[in-house]
Amino acid sequence: MTDLIYVDRENMERRMGDAVAQIDPLDQILSQLPPPGDAGTASAHISFIVAAIAEAANEYSGAVRLLGAITSDVFSDLEANDRAMSVELEKLEKQLDD
Length: 98
Hints:
Blueprint: H1 9-31, H2 41-97
Helix pairs in contact: 1-2
């Protein structure tokens, strides 16, 4: 037999909102980073590393936002399925009563 899993949509969406709220200021700070100074060959490597870090942070923040959107869509779909199953079960019960 399958065990039921309880999912708390309100708190999950609140937690995802908290995560996005923490990422937005980080995105703003990263976008304000000044370009590195010119130190010859090392400058190319430093700027590459800084750019890679900024890009990784941007990808991470995008992934968190995407995860939040997917989570919300999954909950909406689960609620719609629950409503549809409830309607079908009511129909079946009605037919059994008749």
